[in-house]
Amino acid sequence: MSKTVVILGGSYAGLHIAHALLKNEKDLKVVLVSKNSHFYWNIASVRAIIPGIIKDEELFGSIEKALSRYPKDRYEFIVGGATASDFAAKTVTVTTKDGAEKQLSYDHLVLATGARCAGAESVPWKAAGTYEEAVELLHATQERVKAAGHFVVAGAGSTGVEAAAELGFEYGKDREVVLLCSDREVLGGDSIASNALAELKKLNVKVRTEARVESAARLPDGKTEIKLAGGGDPIVTDVYLPTFGLAPNSEFVDAKYLTDKKYASIDAEYRVKGAENVWAAGDIVSQPRAGFMITQKQAAGVAKNIGLVASGKQPTPVKLLPFDIYAVATGRSRGAGRAGSVKLLSFMVYMAKGKTLAVERMAGYIDGSVA
Fold first, then answer.
1. Cα 121 vs. chain centroid, distance in angstroms?
2. Residue 80 domain boundaries
3. What range(s) does the FAD/NAD(P)-binding domain occupy (predicted)?
4. What's the pLDDT at 344?
5. Cα–Cα 20 to 30 A to 171, which of 34, 35, 75, 116?
6. In this predicted structure, what is the pLDDT of residue 245?
7. Over 70: is that where the pLDDT of 1 sits?
């Protein structure tokens, strides 16, 4: 009798695991639940906000199409989101796109619901809602960017640095781009911070350190007024793009299975601690940090472990990268990065990441070759 694996989330971790199980575990049925009917290559969202650079079809791919290569009795795809869970009873409650409520029973459950951008401002770095909402938000942001003469990017982590760099690359010669950094250095003071700062300056991006946003309010004329902690004159900008803070999508999970920051609490095998046959991967875990290559390793390890447990064997610790790789694109010609403690040449980062922001790799999530 086949066992059922319910996967919550259809992004980098969830879709990867679905492909791996459907290709390699013939006795498992996969039920994939995703709020978004399409996979979103949000790695390129920082460049996609510039009108005319990246086409929608390079960013979004149909999940139904991705799964259609497998026998229909092997999978079910539900457009919707989890609203409740009972790990003891092995059930999750899902609300579908049309508002219907369904209770799903599982033998194995995968938490891959990711994380969303914190704050009230709508930004396209994540697809928190439906496909239609994600496309509409991206297009609206492109229109605002096109008409703007002044930009403020708040938050100087990798997303903030990359977004500011893209704006600087495209508009830095005749429009003002400001990057607000709450710390003393960009990228949280990582060893490549000075390299990234140097690249931003080449693109005429004005970086203000120790500048933490206290509030941001939309004015009647459509501009945004930004007040910084510690007082001083507010900043008024045409386009305000906050990039700070992620909130895990874990509201449907009992707090006893979460960390104090609401991320899934996992063991070395990426099982949720205290729950039977519940696994987690991706941004809902964010260990050792959120990142594409880290998520790929987690997804492959979770899929392998589900197969092992389903066949009566013991799961094994999930192996991540042997050293941390951190690459930040700075526009469409350069970048800053490191492999472990070894800094990478700007041109190397550009070729590995910045040239295309890896949009060509989205095809692997649609045709299944990612797994």
1. 17
2. 3-117+246-322+359-367
3. 4-289
4. 97
5. 116
6. 80
7. no
Nearest Cα neighbor of 280 from 260, 303, 312 is: 303
- 48 within a domain of the structure (yes/no): yes
Alpha carbon distance 277, 263 (integer Å): 17
pLDDT above 70 covers a percentage of the chain that reads 100
Structure tokens at 18: 């679905």
CA distance 198 to 364: 34
Residue 47 lies in a domain: yes
pTM higher than 0.85, yes or no?
yes
Count of domains forming the chain: 1
Q: For residue range 91-133, list pLDDT tens digits in order.
A: 999 999 999 999 999 999 999 999 998 877 789 999 988 999 9
Q: What single-letter DSSP state applies at residue 335?
A: E
- How far is the C-alpha of 160 from the C-alpha of 243, rounded, in Å? 5
In the numeric block, which tokens belong to residue 244? 């700070």
Contacts of residue 124, Cβ cutoff 8 Å, sequence gap at least 6: 42, 45, 48, 49, 134, 137, 138, 141
In a domain, 307, yes or no: yes
Taking the C-alpha atoms of residue 337 and residue 328, their distance in angstroms, rounded to an integer, is 6
Q: State the CATH number of the domain containing residue 23.
A: 3.50.50.60
Largest CA distance in the chain: 68
Residue 332 CA to residue 297 CA, distance in Å, equals 27
DSSP assignment of 18-32 equals HHHHHHH-TTEEEEE
> What amino acid is encoded at 269 in this protein?
E
pLDDT, tens digit (0-9, with 9 covering 90-100), for 159-210: 999 999 999 999 999 999 999 999 999 999 999 999 999 999 999 999 999 9
Query: Considering the domain boundaries, does residue 162 fall inside one?
Result: no
